[in-house]
């Protein structure tokens, strides 16, 4: 039998734009594999290896971890997950991430979900979150916003130029946002 081709959706948007929240809803309805690069890196932080310590430091500073680390975590999780459809949440974050992922895996995304949200709204959400993340303090939040604008927005522009971006107004309640997200992913189901 022919091996089914992996279908990847990149889920991008600023810190606190609702990537994780919307991915959970998609998993619940469609059963695809959800890989949050940030969650994988936070788990890796706890490994106590030199790489793990570097990751902890970079996350606390809101900096982008080298793709070597992130891509190996994503590849391992994709293999282990064993699903045909994969949501990659919070990656690629810069040109280095994007180019390395494409070169190493040969995967191009079906499309890019882009959650567009004003910074003031994202800031309020992140400050309200009670998960104890080392980067949910106002100083690091401001650094994360700056990195998003300078390094991650160009990736969205890159895919937009290829007609691959599906832009969603994320400044609404989760259910209203999902009403726009759902049909995009539904269209990939057979
Ligand atoms: N919330 C969600 N949706 C809402 C809505 N519609 N209305 C009102 N409230 C809403 O949501 C954030 C909060 O808002 C929650 O409390 C939620 O209930 C509420 P969430 O769904 O968690 O938003 P999300 O976009 O996932 O926010 P997150 O903080 O996870 O985004 P980041 O992009 O900042 O975090 P990530 O985990 O992707 O990355 C963290 C760090 O890891 C990066 O800064 C970087 O240092 C490192 N990293 C890399 O180096 N490389 C990578 O590839 C990935 C990460
Ligand atoms: Mg998240």
From TrEMBL:
<feature type="binding site">
    <location>
        <position position="172"/>
    </location>
    <ligand>
        <name>ATP</name>
    </ligand>
</feature>
<protein>
    <recommendedName>
        <fullName>UMP-CMP kinase</fullName>
        <ecNumber>2.7.4.14</ecNumber>
    </recommendedName>
</protein>
<keyword id="KW-0808">Transferase</keyword>
<keyword id="KW-0547">Nucleotide-binding</keyword>
<comment type="function">
    <text>Catalyzes the phosphorylation of pyrimidine nucleoside monophosphates at the expense of ATP. Plays an important role in de novo pyrimidine nucleotide biosynthesis. Has preference for UMP and CMP as phosphate acceptors.</text>
</comment>
<dbReference type="GO" id="GO:0016776">
    <property type="term" value="F:phosphotransferase activity, phosphate group as acceptor"/>
</dbReference>
<feature type="binding site">
    <location>
        <begin position="90"/>
        <end position="93"/>
    </location>
    <ligand>
        <name>a ribonucleoside 5'-phosphate</name>
    </ligand>
</feature>
<feature type="binding site">
    <location>
        <position position="129"/>
    </location>
    <ligand>
        <name>ATP</name>
    </ligand>
</feature>
<dbReference type="GO" id="GO:0006221">
    <property type="term" value="P:pyrimidine nucleotide biosynthetic process"/>
</dbReference>
<feature type="binding site">
    <location>
        <begin position="16"/>
        <end position="21"/>
    </location>
    <ligand>
        <name>ATP</name>
    </ligand>
</feature>
<comment type="similarity">
    <text>Belongs to the adenylate kinase family. UMP-CMP kinase subfamily.</text>
</comment>
<keyword id="KW-0963">Cytoplasm</keyword>
<keyword id="KW-0539">Nucleus</keyword>
<comment type="subunit">
    <text>Monomer.</text>
</comment>
<feature type="binding site">
    <location>
        <position position="42"/>
    </location>
    <ligand>
        <name>a ribonucleoside 5'-phosphate</name>
    </ligand>
</feature>
<dbReference type="GO" id="GO:0005634">
    <property type="term" value="C:nucleus"/>
</dbReference>
<feature type="binding site">
    <location>
        <begin position="63"/>
        <end position="65"/>
    </location>
    <ligand>
        <name>a ribonucleoside 5'-phosphate</name>
    </ligand>
</feature>
<dbReference type="GO" id="GO:0005737">
    <property type="term" value="C:cytoplasm"/>
</dbReference>
<keyword id="KW-0067">ATP-binding</keyword>
<dbReference type="GO" id="GO:0006207">
    <property type="term" value="P:'de novo' pyrimidine nucleobase biosynthetic process"/>
</dbReference>
<dbReference type="GO" id="GO:0005524">
    <property type="term" value="F:ATP binding"/>
</dbReference>
<dbReference type="GO" id="GO:0019205">
    <property type="term" value="F:nucleobase-containing compound kinase activity"/>
</dbReference>
<feature type="binding site">
    <location>
        <position position="144"/>
    </location>
    <ligand>
        <name>a ribonucleoside 5'-phosphate</name>
    </ligand>
</feature>
<keyword id="KW-0665">Pyrimidine biosynthesis</keyword>
<feature type="binding site">
    <location>
        <position position="97"/>
    </location>
    <ligand>
        <name>CMP</name>
    </ligand>
</feature>
<dbReference type="GO" id="GO:0009123">
    <property type="term" value="P:nucleoside monophosphate metabolic process"/>
</dbReference>
<feature type="binding site">
    <location>
        <position position="133"/>
    </location>
    <ligand>
        <name>a ribonucleoside 5'-phosphate</name>
    </ligand>
</feature>
<keyword id="KW-0418">Kinase</keyword>
């Amino acid at each position: 039998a022919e091996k089914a081709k992996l279908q990847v959706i990149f889920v991008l948007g600023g810190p606190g734009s609702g990537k994780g929240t919307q991915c959970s809803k998609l998993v619940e309805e469609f059963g695809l594999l959800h890989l949050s690069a940030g969650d994988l890196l936070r788990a890796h932080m706890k490994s106590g290896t030199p790489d793990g310590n570097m990751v902890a430091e970079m996350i606390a500073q809101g900096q982008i971890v080298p793709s070597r680390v992130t891509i190996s975590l994503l590849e391992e999780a994709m293999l282990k997950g064993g699903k045909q459809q994969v949501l990659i949440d919070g990656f690629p974050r810069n040109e280095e991430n994007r180019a390395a992922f494409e070169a190493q895996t040969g995967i191009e995304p079906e499309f890019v979900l882009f959650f567009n949200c004003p910074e003031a709204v994202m800031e309020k959400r992140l400050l309200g979150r009670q998960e104890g993340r080392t980067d949910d303090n106002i100083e690091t939040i401001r650094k994360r916003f700056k990195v998003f604008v300078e390094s991650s927005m160009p990736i969205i522009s890159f895919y937009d130029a290829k007609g691959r971006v599906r832009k969603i107004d994320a400044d609404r309640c989760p259910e209203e946002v999902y009403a726009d997200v759902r049909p995009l992913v539904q269209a990939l189901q057979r």
